[in-house]
Design a protein that fits this description.
The chain is α+β, with helices and mostly antiparallel strands. It has helices at 21-29, 78-88, 140-149, 163-184, 195-204, 245-252, 263-276, and strands at 8-11, 14-15, 31-32, 37-38, 53-58, 66-69, 95-102, 108-116, 122-130, 135-137, 159-161, 189-194, 211-212, 219-228, 233-243.
Length: 284
């Protein structure tokens, strides 16, 4: 894999290591090829400026640094749509993708793939939800350097990845609510995520009821990795995992009891934190 650092990796859909005229034009126009228009993610402090950061270098559960997708639009490349079609819709004809469809009490679903019959009526459908990671802090100070120098001058470490909020909380709440609805329809919902997100869940939660693909289970997690493909980063399909609504409840419950810290281990962590915050005096 191409060497990466703990900095933004892709900015306005370009690898940050290859700044050229095309890259400069997309930055100037704040253009995102995945939405075929202006980036849809504004900075909170200055909404007219778009964030533009697709991926950042980070790691999970002790693994090496790799590109972590922090914008859901980044998943919308042909590889993702083709994988869903191959794995779930292989015998369909007249497939259409409908974005942001209202599920009533379940909220909206990112995409519904639809098969139409000869009379333009819905013959079948497949719900697809996309979940990217999010950051704690902000990687934008790196971008300010990049816009000035076309390089990352300082290693500020101004951001981390908020794995728990995006995947243990946000995604699992969606999987529970929407999973119950599609189960009542005897259908399935597919969550498109990065492989590192599944690594995180397996280390932080009880995934004992998550299995390899099972056509009868209502919730799937379809995972993709980010691979360097000569001159840019691209998605590569990895696995499909399936679970039941009971399995989602088990994940939401957190790690199994045998992985809980002991009370003595927790006391030790309290003491270390108190000393580092200068609230306690060190005995050494």
């Amino acid at each position: 894999m191409k060497k990466i650092d703990r900095t933004p990796i892709e900015y306005f859909c370009h690898d940050c290591g290859t700044f050229d005229a095309s890259f400069a034009l997309d930055v100037k126009q704040q253009f995102c090829k995945y939405v075929n228009g202006t980036c849809v993610k504004p900075r909170k402090s200055t909404p007219e400026i778009k964030v533009g950061i697709c991926t950042v270098g980070a790691s999970v559960v002790g693994k090496s640094l790799q590109p972590i997708i922090i914008c859901p639009q980044r998943f919308k490349e042909d590889q993702m749509f083709n994988t869903i079609r191959k794995k779930y819709l292989s015998d369909w004809n007249n497939v259409m993708w409908i974005p942001e469809v209202d599920m009533g009490v379940g909220g909206s679903v990112d995409y519904v793939a639809v098969e139409l019959d000869g009379n333009q009526q819905i013959k079948d459908f497949q719900c697809v939800e996309i979940q990217a990671a999010g950051t704690t802090g902000t990687p934008y100070p790196y971008i300010q350097d990049y816009l000035k120098y076309h390089d990352f001058i300082h290693n500020k470490h101004t951001f981390g990845i908020n794995w728990a909020n995006e995947f243990s909380k946000t995604m699992m709440q969606q999987a529970y609510k929407k999973g119950k609805i599609v189960q009542s329809w005897k259908k399935k919902i597919v969550f498109v995520i990065q492989d590192v997100a599944m690594d995180y869940l397996q280390c932080s939660s009880d995934c004992s009821k998550v299995t390899t693909y099972n056509k009868d289970y209502p919730v799937d997690f379809c995972t993709f990795s980010m691979k360097w493909k000569g001159n840019n980063w691209g998605l590569e399909h990895q696995n499909i995992y399936s679970t039941t609504i009971e399995g989602i409840e088990t994940i939401i419950g957190g790690a199994p009891e045998d992985r809980f810290p002991t009370i003595e281990e927790f006391k030790e962590k309290i003491m270390k934190k108190g000393i580092s915050d200068r609230l306690f005096k060190s005995n050494q």
